[in-house]
């Protein structure tokens, strides 16, 4: 096969990576919270019921902003149910997932969870604009963030949290364009309530960062018109617009699935164009950034049947996709797509964190382990910090039913503050190794620190409860750097991390 090539030059950059690009998502859905992050009585649980084994994996994963409490769940959620003494917390029907919510875990427990992850973890709270509106969003903001001396801030202190939570990042509802959403709205209706909520929240604190709901997927009939209408109402009042995308192989079409990032990149570019079009119409110099606050591989067709069969159980096993090597390579490619647009995508949340379409799995009363998708995320979060270099690949291509000819190589590179560079690359070929040649210009790189790959003779290999360490990245031999030229062979269907200094 002919080599795939690109040139790296520090003069050509995309932008700084915002640490929030490595965000995640904890929703009251299935076992993400209960028996996921929170399981009082588990041998690894601390005094607050948080599983230490899960916390350790969350730290290793390297997540930053953690979106909470939903998702579809938030559109019927009453935040007051989730605070205060446990004995007073009501059990409620969760219409989104046909489950019973016990409210044993709520806002204060979530903040405690973030603190235990460490200083890199940041709260990102969605307010309910489905069944509720401006008043309840303001009450939640006052409860969470006001220092003291008002009924709601004093109530927080009475509940044991004297210090305000300091939540900066807020989502104004969730997927309000979707007919499945409790309190679903038209773009005009949502645009108005989002603008009024944003205006009022900024009166409490002008520095809050607000995310308006974009489309729940680019496949929605209203996609782009929705964004334009919502932004026309909210442009001066919000900082971000949200994007959501999930990928799976449809009808066994693995080749198109492997090129999912082609769709993700063009989705991002369409939303950027829509934001900038509205900005131009409003003669604004302000720039709206993108919050890709739900993205992942998700075998969604299976989940729809699961949910409709539920009869209000507590923490059912839902959306517990078990990911293969193939899925992890696609997820790596989606990370590359986000990094390649780091100039505009400043928040991104892998949906979700534990058990529910998640990189971390647990067994109630049993162990916690890493799915295959854990590895590309943790490596990207660890080494993808700094400035993204502009990568324009010249690659052999392959045919896909959905996207036509797609590059076999998908790649990006990030330069850290100390001058070291990490190349992230995916070989989409299912049959052949892909020779890679990278010309390094003006970067003064002389050593290869490591070339690690996630690939397997069996692309369907997975980590499971019975065999939790079946799949992990391995070192690759033969990668060379000399005379400003990096050469490597990328294994078929592989995610690669090549670190240079
Ligand atoms: O992440 C699972 C669900 O997907 C979320 O609750 C919803 O926002 C999206 O449709």
TrEMBL record:
Start and end residues of each Alpha-L-arabinofuranosidase C-terminal domain: 293-494
> What reaction gets catalysed by this protein?
Hydrolysis of terminal non-reducing alpha-L-arabinofuranoside residues in alpha-L-arabinosides
The protein's superkingdom reads: Bacteria
Query: Which EC number applies?
Result: 3.2.1.55
Q: Which Pfam families match?
A: Alpha-L-AF_C (PF06964), ASD1_dom (PF22848)
Keywords of this protein's UniProt record, alphabetized? Carbohydrate metabolism, Glycosidase, Hydrolase
Q: Where is this region: Disordered?
A: 459-478
Family according to the record: Belongs to the glycosyl hydrolase 51 family.
Q: How does it assemble?
A: Homohexamer; trimer of dimers.
The name this protein goes by in its record: non-reducing end alpha-L-arabinofuranosidase
Native source species: Streptomyces lienomycini
